[in-house]
Amino acid sequence: MSIQIFILSKLMEDNNYPYKLKKQLSEPIPLDQLGGLTESKLYYHFDSLAKQGLIETVEIVKEEHRPDKQIFTITAKGREELPKKIYKLFENADKISDMVVGLASIKYVDREKVVEILEKKLKKIKDHWEQITNFEKQIQIDKEHEKFAEFMSGYVSTRTEHTIYWLEELIKRIKQREI
């Protein structure tokens, strides 16, 4: 879904074609390689978006000794669907790294709605963490498993506190329009 959001967001700015988007993703940092985005995957998503009626070919550029270039534009339906896809991405994200494309496209959605989604996510994490810590207090751990339990407890608490901190920081920065 994030590839489709990326494509739709780029088409909101200007008409474009798959190979050019792939090049934009690879410079200066090879985000395409880091994300495992191949040219065939990109073309697949362009085709999928076209079949959904979210984008359409606006021009075909013919060049000598090169394949034809299909230039795409976003449709009215695509403009309507983009925010829905972005909200869904935030709702389904398990961690902030899953939200990167949504954050990069935040100008196409209502920030307050994104904040609401993230605050619900934060509350769920905090409630779950509270349940775990209350449960942890009730468990008796024998000597044999004490070190293992300490390790796991430290790992889970550090990770959860880290997640809570950065989610709170993200919410704050969205509210302050820094992101």
Automatic annotation (TrEMBL):
Residue stretches making up the Transcription regulator PadR N-terminal domain: 7-82
Database matches in Pfam families: PadR
Protein name: PadR family transcriptional regulator
Organism field: Peribacillus asahii
